[in-house]
Amino acid sequence: QVYEVEFVILCIGLYSGYPNIPDFPPNQGPEVFKGRVVHSWDYSAMGSEKAAEFVKGKRVVIVGSQKTAIDIAAECAKGQRWGISKMIEFYLRWKLPLKKHGMVPELSFFQDVSSCHTCMLPDKFYDRVEEGSIVIKKSKTISFCETGIVIGDGRLEPVVEADVVILATGYRGDHKLRDIFDSPALQKTITGASSIVPLYRQVIHPRIPQLAVIGYAESLSSLSATEIRCQWLVEFLAGKFELPSVSKMEEEVRVWEKFLRRHSGGKSRRACISNFHIWNNDQFCKDMGLQSRRKKGFLRDLFMPYGPADYTGLLAD
Questions:
Q1: Using CB atoms within 10 A of its CB, is residue 131 exposed (0-12), middle (13-18) or buried (19+)?
Q2: Using an 8 Å Cβ cutoff, are 162 and 61 in contact?
Q3: Which domains are seen in the chain, by residue range?
Q4: What is the reported pLDDT for 86?
Q5: Fewest CB within 10 A of the end CB: N or C in the chain?
Q6: Alpha carbon 150 to chain centroid distance?
Q7: Is pLDDT above 80 for 182?
Q8: Contact 204, 59 (CB under 8 A)
Q9: How many C-beta atoms lie closer than 10 Å to residue 77's C-beta?
């Protein structure tokens, strides 16, 4: 059934529906493994009881480096099961026993945060590492064998034997947006040359101004980031302001991407606004003709940290 509309808002999310399954060389992928291999999406879809039964009494390997991998590792460890997680540099060096476990990051904490490569650890995560119920292995590559996985090239580490491997390797949100469109021309337009969706203010595609994407931006507070974009979109649809020209919007996207790449050690993603959410919020406020300085008093605005509460009642100003 076809509906004719003047504007489309996509609120489909980036973290579902299109799992990011790593590519493996021939005879080194999941097909050679005699156990079970699932993506974290399939694992979470099982529900608490079925998921607990799925890993009960089994040797579990979690492949990943971010929030989902860490949460699943902690969950598996609760029942005295093994969880082995391939971790990357992501947390404060001085606060956690990273050196002891070979987990010292290559990038600075600021660069990690700027590239959205940090996450909150579950309670007592490193306590479980110390007791041995979680074993951390850091490696840039893995491959499968019949009995488990091989860390790196296999020369320095023995085979990690497993019954279950959970791929907590994220999602391909840009591909998910692209594949909504049947037309190859529109698919090419939505992603651009880099296969990453270039969105003005992380909302509007410069060459498809009748299409908005909500929930694309990543931040230290993603709910707050999404809310201010919804408010901005409402004001735009109400005719309170106009979009710049296509060329200016595309230039803004390029400038923003260059800025993020410079401050994140080259690891940034277009959707990640992270450390720069205040500056980003200032842009939204100025677009809507609102005061970007939200504190009462010059000194408060200069020295006190900004958070979601500072933007409460934004459109009521």
A1: exposed
A2: yes
A3: 8-14+173-316 (no CATH), 30-168 (3.50.50.60)
A4: 37
A5: N
A6: 26
A7: yes
A8: no
A9: 23
